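HUMAN: Mind sharing a backbone?

ASSISTANT:
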Amino acid sequence: MKRITILQRKIAFFNIFKWFLLALLVGIIVGICNAMFLKLLEFSIGVTNQFEYYFLILPFALYFVNRLAKMSPKDNDYSTNQAIASINERKAVSLISSLKAFFLPIITIACGGSAGKESPCADVGAGVSSFISKLFSFNKQERRKLMICGVSAGFAGVFGVPISGALFGLEVLSVGTVFYEVMFPAFIAGITSFQITHALGVNYIYHPLSLKAISLDGSLFQVVLAGLFFGVVALIFIEVIKLSNIIMRYIGSKTNTFIRCLVASAVVIAIGLLTSPDYLGLTMNRIDTILSGGICRRGGRGACNACIFYRCQCRIFLC
């Protein structure tokens, strides 16, 4: 019995050490990919933003992105939902899908579209981890664990949140639950990816907050009210996305791809012309200004409301 216990401890130690090294490897590679993505994205935005009405080329950019996305149809795991679905279904994510997730958002965002940074961090991390698992001839369960580490590393490096990024990578696969078996390697991959990305010259936006204890005299009511308000806005946003998706699918069934891209771009261009180009793309400058205590330079609250509709258009033109 004593020999069996010692043997089990050795096996457990070896397994922990193995996943520590694998998570370290995934964190390093994904961290480098994150830095390349963010640097290239920053460069592309800097080039296009030199022109005042750069967003007018968005219809052609969306059409070009659509054509690139249609290449190699079997490699279609280039969005967050598709990458997560592949992980949950224990399927591999190809490197071609990762390349699509890497370059397509850069083109879209640089031209004024809304693509976000979550797709590259999720799909590139999953694709790299899937490729590594193939090299080591892992089974489906081990591949899934390593792909979770890749997603965690991607989120942690892109958004500069090593701990919460790892937790998000664990929870996003199944909302409300955590895959505890892979928690340790996910934390290692997330922290390593963050350190590598930061060491390669990527700077993150941080805003120190001076928080006061919530009291029952009124601040608690304000927090509850704010939570209700944000929940309603999120619900409206989701429903607008669903409605926009239905409309764009209908337009796509009646017309060609370029007309659909033109219609989606028209909404974005209208917002850029009537409000402010700051609401286009990642809108990081606008967010940074607001969190720093600044006010909207142009457009006011109406522009903020219009931004909800803008965000939906560029996310569905590939459907």
The chain has twelve helices and no strands. The first helix runs from residue 2 to 48. The CA atoms of residues 5 and 11 lie 10 Å apart.
